[in-house]
Structure formats: structure tokens, C-alpha cells
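Dear colleague,

As promised, here are the two records you asked about, laid out in our usual form so they can be pasted straight into your sheet.

NAME FIELD: protein one
SEQUENCE, THEN STRUCTURE:
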Amino acid sequence: MLMKRILKGLSVICAVLAFWATEVEAQIPSIQEELALAEAEWSTNKPKTYEFTLKIICFCAPAPPGSEPIVFRVNNGAGSRVGSLRTRSPEDLEKYGTVEKQFAFIRAALREQPYRVEIEYDPVLGYPRRVYIDPKPYTADEEYGFAIEAFIALSQ
């Protein structure tokens, strides 16, 4: 009799915990939902002209002397480098040249179903502040991503 009561009590506790876990999980937005929300925020609030400094996150060869900081200026959706143009490869940086291209970079990375993803978006404008992608578990030095620093809205 006592064992039946204990099992019944445990069943109720398990059911409550399962329900609670489902409710908590439903409140946590998925990475895809966060991306969609950030894109909507950006679409609504993006400045006409803006500038940002790009930091590449990777285990790759150091940038050539004089090539940093990497600064982009975007005017009416067209991005261009500002300052020194010495770099690993201008084509490598093209995918980061506008916030829209950064969102496309994130979508492409997510399609590959990486092992670990960490993305931080600006709470006001929605642009990605930091993106970290770890494609595979138990593999060293293949992580990649970028960080946006010194974002400046030059005109609305």
C-alpha cells in the first residue's frame, strides 16, 4: 500500500515536471526565431548609412600588418571598406559587408546544423553583435564567426 502511494506520488511529480519543462522550453525562442526577430528589428530600425568595425573569429593565419581594423561603411544597402584595404582576401570579407549579408551568413551556417551556436543581437537595432559557430563536437580549432564593434548610425 505504501509503495503504491509512493509510486502514485512520483507519477504526479513526473507529470508536473514534464509539463513544466515543456512550458519553459516553449518560452525559450529557438535560434531561428531569434534570427527572424532580429531581422525584423533591423528591417524596421536600420539606418540609411552606418559604419562598423568587423572582427573575425577563427583559428586562421594572423591578418597582415596594417590590415586592421576592418571597417565597413554602408550607404543605402551598399557596403564598402573604409581605410586600409590590406587583408587576407577582400572576397573573404565581402560576406560581412552589410548587416543583411551577415544575416545571410548566419542562415547559411544554421543550414549546416552546427554542433554549437552562440549569437548575440543588438537589442535596439537587431544587427548581430557576435556570432560563434562550432560545426562539430570533439574537433579542435574549426570554430568560426565574427563580432561587430563600434557600430555607428551615421544617418536615419
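NAME FIELD: protein two
SEQUENCE, THEN STRUCTURE:
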Amino acid sequence: MASESGNRAVVEMRRYHAAQESALRAVAAARGTVGKTRDRRTVELERLDAAVSEAVGAEDEALAVLAELVPVVQVAAYAGETVKRVREAQQRASAEVVSARVAALTNGLPVRRGPGRPRRSGRGVAVGEVAPIAGAEHVGDTSSMVDSVV
């Protein structure tokens, strides 16, 4: 009897160890699948990031081209963007590409600008210089001077 119960205990122990080994193999297989899936995700994210970057670049160029033809405020209204976003697009877009597209759209005719400063003319105040607030020169108060941001 003792040997029969001992044999049953050994058989149960072997089944238990077989179950443990099977579960361990399942964990190892799942871990491998997770690793491969993470690698695929990384590759896909890089591909999608490149596609988004390319699309944003094309949008920047399109906004900059339109901003060469009409005032920035109108571009922002037409495109449903902020003026800040349009100005950022103008800064990021390639000047050569924008100029070429404007020339192609206008058949080489010069772009007529309305009243105001010409494009990319700046404020005429160097960085770090102080520019007066409009009308402050009549007051004679220098405390109303501000640092200009160019």
C-alpha cells in the first residue's frame, strides 16, 4: 500500500511539474510575442511620425505661400488657424520653395502688397534696443519705453 500511495504521489508531482513547465513555456512565448509587437509598434510609430512631419511641412509651405499673397490675419481666418501658427509656418517653410510656388501661381508677376510694411522687413529696431510705444514721444515720459521683440 505504501508503495502504491508513493507511486500516486510521484505521478501527481510529475503532473504538477508538467503543468508548471507548460505554464512557463506559455509565459516565454507570450513574452516573445510582446517583444515582437513592441518592435513593430516602434517601427510603425517612426513611419507615422515621418508621415506627420512631411504633412506638417507641406501645410507650412501652403500657409506660407498664401501668406505671401494675402495678409496673415486673412490666412489665419481662411485656414482656421491662429495668426501665431501662420507665422510659425512662414518661419519653418523653405523660402526658396515658397518663392517658387508664388512665382508659379502668379506667373512671375510681382505680388502687390497693400499698405504697411513689406514682407520680412522687420520692425527696424535691433534686438535689445528699446522702441517707444506709439504716442509716448509726446508725453516725454521715458518710463513707458519697452524692450521690443523682433
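A couple of things worth noting about protein two: Residues 2-109 form one domain. Helices lie at 2-69, 72-79, 83-92, 95-105.

Best,
R.
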